[in-house]
Amino acid sequence: MGEVEQYWNRFAQQHQLVLNTPDSWMFGDGTEQMGNELGELVVKGIKTGTCSSLQVYELEHESYPEVGQYDIVLDGQNRPLVIIQYTNIEIIPMNKVTEEFAKSEGEGDLSYSYWYEEHERFFTWELGLYGLSFSPDMLLVCQNFKVVDIYKD
Q: Which residues neighbour 46 within 8 Å (Cβ) at sequence distance 6 or greater?
Protein backbone atom coordinates (compact mmCIF):
# COMPACT_ATOMS: atom_id res chain seq x y z
CA MET A 1 0.00 0.00 0.00
CA GLY A 2 1.37 3.40 -0.97
CA GLU A 3 1.88 6.45 1.21
CA VAL A 4 -1.25 8.20 -0.09
CA GLU A 5 -3.47 5.19 0.59
CA GLN A 6 -2.01 4.74 4.09
CA TYR A 7 -2.62 8.41 4.83
CA TRP A 8 -6.22 8.23 3.65
CA ASN A 9 -6.93 4.98 5.50
CA ARG A 10 -5.63 6.48 8.75
CA PHE A 11 -7.75 9.61 8.28
CA ALA A 12 -10.87 7.66 7.25
CA GLN A 13 -10.56 5.36 10.24
CA GLN A 14 -10.14 8.30 12.66
CA HIS A 15 -13.26 9.97 11.23
CA GLN A 16 -15.29 6.79 10.72
CA LEU A 17 -15.54 7.30 6.96
CA VAL A 18 -16.29 4.40 4.69
CA LEU A 19 -15.00 5.87 1.43
CA ASN A 20 -12.47 4.80 -1.17
CA THR A 21 -9.21 6.70 -1.39
CA PRO A 22 -10.06 10.02 -3.07
CA ASP A 23 -8.20 11.57 -5.97
CA SER A 24 -4.74 12.86 -5.21
CA TRP A 25 -3.08 15.57 -7.26
CA MET A 26 -0.60 18.42 -7.29
CA PHE A 27 -1.45 22.07 -7.89
CA GLY A 28 -0.04 23.90 -10.89
CA ASP A 29 1.60 22.91 -14.12
CA GLY A 30 3.09 19.62 -12.98
CA THR A 31 6.48 21.05 -12.06
CA GLU A 32 8.03 20.23 -8.71
CA GLN A 33 8.59 23.90 -7.92
CA MET A 34 4.99 24.96 -8.54
CA GLY A 35 3.62 21.90 -6.74
CA ASN A 36 5.70 22.75 -3.68
CA GLU A 37 4.94 26.49 -3.74
CA LEU A 38 1.18 26.15 -4.14
CA GLY A 39 0.98 23.18 -1.79
CA GLU A 40 2.73 25.20 0.92
CA LEU A 41 0.13 27.97 0.50
CA VAL A 42 -2.57 25.38 1.21
CA VAL A 43 -0.75 24.05 4.28
CA LYS A 44 -0.41 27.62 5.62
CA GLY A 45 -4.14 28.28 5.07
CA ILE A 46 -3.51 31.04 2.52
CA LYS A 47 -4.80 29.11 -0.51
CA THR A 48 -8.44 28.04 -0.06
CA GLY A 49 -9.52 28.14 -3.69
CA THR A 50 -8.55 26.86 -7.10
CA CYS A 51 -10.02 26.75 -10.57
CA SER A 52 -9.78 24.59 -13.65
CA SER A 53 -10.88 24.90 -17.23
CA LEU A 54 -14.29 23.36 -17.83
CA GLN A 55 -13.10 22.43 -21.35
CA VAL A 56 -10.23 20.38 -19.94
CA TYR A 57 -12.58 18.51 -17.59
CA GLU A 58 -14.73 17.65 -20.59
CA LEU A 59 -11.81 16.72 -22.86
CA GLU A 60 -10.38 14.42 -20.20
CA HIS A 61 -13.83 12.95 -19.35
CA GLU A 62 -13.24 13.91 -15.74
CA SER A 63 -16.04 14.41 -13.22
CA TYR A 64 -16.39 17.82 -11.61
CA PRO A 65 -15.68 17.95 -7.90
CA GLU A 66 -18.69 18.10 -5.59
CA VAL A 67 -19.30 19.95 -2.35
CA GLY A 68 -18.31 17.65 0.52
CA GLN A 69 -15.89 15.63 -1.61
CA TYR A 70 -12.42 14.95 -0.23
CA ASP A 71 -9.18 15.11 -2.23
CA ILE A 72 -5.55 14.68 -1.27
CA VAL A 73 -3.14 17.45 -2.27
CA LEU A 74 0.40 16.34 -3.11
CA ASP A 75 3.67 18.24 -2.98
CA GLY A 76 6.12 18.56 -5.86
CA GLN A 77 7.49 15.07 -5.13
CA ASN A 78 4.00 13.51 -5.24
CA ARG A 79 3.93 13.00 -1.47
CA PRO A 80 0.78 13.80 0.51
CA LEU A 81 0.48 17.25 2.08
CA VAL A 82 -3.14 17.65 3.16
CA ILE A 83 -6.63 16.32 2.79
CA ILE A 84 -9.07 18.96 1.60
CA GLN A 85 -12.85 19.01 1.47
CA TYR A 86 -14.73 21.11 -1.06
CA THR A 87 -17.03 23.75 0.42
CA ASN A 88 -18.25 25.47 -2.76
CA ILE A 89 -18.17 24.69 -6.49
CA GLU A 90 -19.29 27.13 -9.18
CA ILE A 91 -18.95 27.28 -12.95
CA ILE A 92 -18.15 30.88 -13.87
CA PRO A 93 -16.76 32.68 -16.96
CA MET A 94 -13.17 33.69 -16.24
CA ASN A 95 -13.93 37.38 -16.75
CA LYS A 96 -16.72 37.16 -14.12
CA VAL A 97 -14.60 35.66 -11.33
CA THR A 98 -14.83 37.86 -8.23
CA GLU A 99 -11.96 39.56 -6.45
CA GLU A 100 -12.84 37.49 -3.40
CA PHE A 101 -12.37 34.23 -5.30
CA ALA A 102 -9.13 35.47 -6.89
CA LYS A 103 -7.82 36.26 -3.39
CA SER A 104 -8.82 32.78 -2.17
CA GLU A 105 -6.31 31.32 -4.62
CA GLY A 106 -3.63 32.79 -2.34
CA GLU A 107 -1.07 33.63 -5.02
CA GLY A 108 1.20 36.60 -5.62
CA ASP A 109 0.00 39.85 -4.07
CA LEU A 110 -3.55 38.41 -3.75
CA SER A 111 -4.87 40.97 -6.24
CA TYR A 112 -7.39 40.28 -8.98
CA SER A 113 -4.99 41.61 -11.64
CA TYR A 114 -2.21 39.24 -10.53
CA TRP A 115 -4.66 36.33 -10.49
CA TYR A 116 -6.03 37.17 -13.94
CA GLU A 117 -2.61 37.60 -15.60
CA GLU A 118 -1.22 34.37 -14.13
CA HIS A 119 -4.34 32.38 -14.99
CA GLU A 120 -4.50 33.77 -18.51
CA ARG A 121 -0.90 32.62 -18.98
CA PHE A 122 -1.61 29.20 -17.46
CA PHE A 123 -4.82 28.56 -19.41
CA THR A 124 -3.22 29.74 -22.67
CA TRP A 125 -0.51 27.13 -22.09
CA GLU A 126 -2.88 24.37 -20.92
CA LEU A 127 -5.46 24.85 -23.67
CA GLY A 128 -2.64 25.05 -26.22
CA LEU A 129 -1.78 21.44 -25.35
CA TYR A 130 -5.19 20.52 -26.82
CA GLY A 131 -4.95 22.87 -29.81
CA LEU A 132 -7.43 25.28 -28.19
CA SER A 133 -7.18 29.02 -27.56
CA PHE A 134 -7.71 31.06 -24.43
CA SER A 135 -10.84 33.21 -24.24
CA PRO A 136 -11.66 35.74 -21.49
CA ASP A 137 -15.15 34.27 -21.18
CA MET A 138 -14.02 30.65 -20.98
CA LEU A 139 -15.83 28.70 -18.29
CA LEU A 140 -13.96 27.80 -15.12
CA VAL A 141 -14.82 25.29 -12.43
CA CYS A 142 -14.13 27.43 -9.35
CA GLN A 143 -13.60 25.41 -6.20
CA ASN A 144 -13.29 26.52 -2.60
CA PHE A 145 -12.07 24.07 0.00
CA LYS A 146 -10.97 23.70 3.58
CA VAL A 147 -8.03 21.72 4.92
CA VAL A 148 -9.34 18.91 7.11
CA ASP A 149 -6.00 17.23 7.82
CA ILE A 150 -2.29 18.01 7.46
CA TYR A 151 0.00 15.08 6.73
CA LYS A 152 2.55 14.14 9.35
CA ASP A 153 5.22 11.52 8.63
A: 106
pLDDT tens track for 34-55 = 999 999 999 999 999 999 999 9
Does the predicted model carry a pTM greater than 0.85? Answer: yes
Question: At 127, is the pLDDT very low, low, confident or very high (cuts 50, 70, 90)?
Answer: very high
Between strands 70-74 and 80-93, the pairing is antiparallel
* Cβ atoms < 10 Å from Cβ of 1: 8
Are residues 114 and 107 in contact, defined by beta-carbon separation less than 8 angstroms?
yes
* HSE-up (13 A, CA, CB side) for residue 150: 7
User: Pick from 109, 110, 107: which is nearest to 122 by CA?
Assistant: 107
